[in-house]
Amino acid sequence: MTEFNLNPDYAIANEQTLRGLFDATHSLAILKCQSTIGEHAQEFIRRSPFVCIGTQGLEGKADVSPRGDPAGFVKVLDERTLAIPDRPGNNRLDTLTNIIANPNVRLLFVIPGFDDTLRVNGRAALTNDPHLLKSMSINNRVPKLAIVVTVSEVFMHCAKAFRRSRLWSPDHFQDRTEMPSLVNIILDETTGAPSDRDEMRRLDEELEEDYRRTLY
């Protein structure tokens, strides 16, 4: 693949040039921003089994992490505070170390079948308060810590992206077997995947067993 280089003649380098390309912001897009978690936002969060967390470290390195659990796993503690359990993962701790360095976070809540989403901005802190963690246990397994977010901005996001992508339409679901497995991809890009199909199958089965054993 040929390396792409951005043509500087067409670079958008300042806000004035950027805004000149678009119509003025609709008044509702400004008015919809709230500073607290209102009735409808609370209901949306209780229905959501999936949230993406955007964070950034002091050096500007950004990260977006998906988090999922049964619907309502993100707790609404009060109209300005949320708590997100941290479940077992790969222990890279990108989100958590970023929060320690820079507490500003962005959340995107998704509900299967809903085309609109809920966006929440705020500042996060980490806690291992046993009372809070116990309230988030699943299958008698208590998370090691929770991400507590003090909310500064809440607003609904329109359905255009989900409708353009037809994300929930079964007619547009893709066949996962058309790409290699997760383990195969990682090995291809690092140490090299085994050519023996039985060995590759064994590694895939080991990952599935790890999912079953360590999900919570």
Q: What is the CA-CA span between the terminal residues?
A: 41 Å
Overall shape: globular
Q: Please write the string of helix (H) and strand (E) elements.
A: HHHEEEEHEEHEHHH
Runs with pLDDT <50, length 5+? none
Strand order of the largest sheet: 2-1-5-6-7-4-3
In CATH terms, what is the architecture of the largest domain? Roll
Helix content: 25-40%
CATH topology of the largest domain: Pnp Oxidase, Chain A
User: What percent of residues are in strands?
Assistant: 25-35%
Class derived from helix and strand content: alpha+beta
- Sheet bearing the most strands, described? 7 strands, antiparallel
CATH top level class name of the largest domain? Mainly Beta
Mean pLDDT: 95
* Rounded radius of gyration (Å): 21 Å
Query: CATH superfamily assignment of the largest domain?
Result: Electron Transport, Fmn-binding Protein, Chain A
Domain count: 2
Number of helices: 8
Describe this structure in words.
The protein is built from 8 helices and 7 strands, in the order αααββββαββαβααα. It has 216 residues and is of the alpha+beta class. A 7-stranded antiparallel beta sheet has the order 2-1-5-6-7-4-3, covered by helices on one side. Residues 39-158 form the Pyridoxamine 5'-phosphate oxidase N-terminal domain. This is Pyridoxamine 5'-phosphate oxidase family protein. It holds the Pfam family PNPOx_N.
Topology:
Elements lengths: L14 H5 L7 H5 L7 H9 L2 E7 L5 E7 L6 E4 L2 E6 L7 H8 L2 E7 L6 E11 L2 H5 L10 E13 L2 H6 L16 H8 L7 H18 L2
Antiparallel strand pairs: 1-2, 1-5, 3-4, 4-7, 5-6, 6-7
